[in-house]
Every structure is written in structure tokens, then in C-alpha cells.
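Input.
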Amino acid sequence: QVQLVESGGGLVQAGGSLRLSCAATGRIFSIPTMGWYRQAPGKQRELVAFSSSDGSAKYADSLKGRFTISRDNVKNTVYLQMNSLKSDDTAVYYCNARVRSTDWGDYWGQGAQVTVSS
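Output.
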């Protein structure tokens, strides 16, 4: 069974940085895409960024330049480096991956709380 395990959330002051990690475990043959979404209180879940296995990446337009996604295909891990954090970045951040295991599946992590204090 495939699981996504997130780490790295927390409390940070505005202007600070945090790095999130998400490791996929289980019987995995390939992970074409891994990425991050976030959901702020009272708002819909939105795309932050995703990374393809070929190294390409896509970001939400509003986050370009502050957030950087990267992945380690050997470790089946995706990272999100968040810089110059603002109070508007406060949200629960969810890892998402499209995984080929014994079957294809779309998986979510448990969520990591990121709180930015102003």
C-alpha cells in the first residue's frame, strides 16, 4: 500500500523560510508527478506546485519566485522550499502524487500545518 508521509511544517515569522518534505513509501514502480496543494481556513484547496519525473515543474503564478519544488526520484521524495513567507501563506499543505504501484493511484499526504505570524 502506498503512503505519503509529510514533514517540516511549523510556525515561522513573516519573511522567514520553511522546507516541507514528502516521502512516498510502499510498492512503487513509478511516480510521474508529485506536488503540493494548500488549503487555508475557509478557502478551497489550491495548487502550489508539482514536479514531473522528467524534471519539469509547474507553479501557481502567485508563488513563482518564492517557492521552489524539487524531488529525489531515488528516495521517492518531493520537497517544497518556501521563502519570504507571508501571513497569506498560512495553510495546511498537502502532498499529492500520481503513483504506479500494483495499479495506478492518486495519493494524498496527511497534511502539514504552516503558520506564518506577522
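The CA atoms of residues 14 and 116 lie 6 Å apart.
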